[in-house]
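REQUEST FORM: STRUCTURE PREDICTION
Request ID: SP-0412
Submitted by: Lab K.M.
Chain count: 1
Length (residues): 338
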Amino acid sequence: MSFPTIAHCIKSYTMIRYNYLCINEVDMINEVVSVKMPVKEKIRILKNHFEPENATGREARLSLVTGIHGDELDGQYVCYEVIRQIKAHPELLTGTVDVYPCINPLGMDMGARGIPMFDLDMNRVFPGDNNGAMAEYVAAEVVNDIIGSDLCIDVHSSNVYIKEAPQVRLNEDCADKLLPYAKIMNADFVWVYSSITVREATLAYSLNKLGVPTLVTEMGVGLRINNAYCRQLIDGIFNIMIELGIWQGERPAVKEPIMSTEGQVDFIHAEHAGLFVSALGEQMGHIKKGERIGDIISPVDGEILQEIISPADGIVFSLRENPVIYKGTLLARVYAVR
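STATUS: Completed
RESULT:
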């Protein structure tokens, strides 16, 4: 598959964000929900709906959601590329695809993780309330629109502090149902969470409880687009579409992910405040027990305050990106091969 430049991605995102309706042979941009704001403005959540030319209404349906956090931009490129490829080959579409590129448009406009002014994480208000405040109302309408999908993929980037390798995260309560999809998602890593740690007000938790199988993907770092990670996930999405009978294109080559449970993941935290300097450069991946992950240094007295050492043979799949750290800051996650 060919991938255009980020400039094309931004141009496409601008069109999707501000156009109200666009109809051609296979796609239609619909307004999912709108809420009036002060000074004659309003929040509008849009989706791009695709179906085959001779749809019967019995086709499998995939929903692709991103932009819940306004500082997560990888999903914008992913949406662009999925839309571009479907529009380039509508004859290969045999099912329904709904693309929701921006659930938190206020946050996206400001580059803020949550909803500006309200200091609210959009991913803590699902499944929402049709009679609730603005965020709850929007969340409820989005959930209602997604219900009926055969599968939902909720695409996230990390925040501006931690870089994540492409991964799928699952609640162990839903693992049996979701693992077959997670394994063909072209991720480096599949992390199965304990149900004790699950935040119940997330989109994924709510949809899974409502009967819509939902995968959560994480990759990259906030306010950036990692082309390689996006392309990896895009191949995974088309692989899923082929598996669901939604797409008749050539099946992409996907990697076999590393499978994990929470007990196999080591969390490495800082013991000192200072600057974290990675010894891994831009690369995460395999590491041996005792190898350096990085150092915490003091720019005042020129000393290494803490050497960050891998506690086990394994895979580094999360790594501190912002170098300014404090005692207790998460520096890395290592999947330990025991």
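NOTES: The chain has two domains: 6-256, 264-336.
Reviewed by: T.R.
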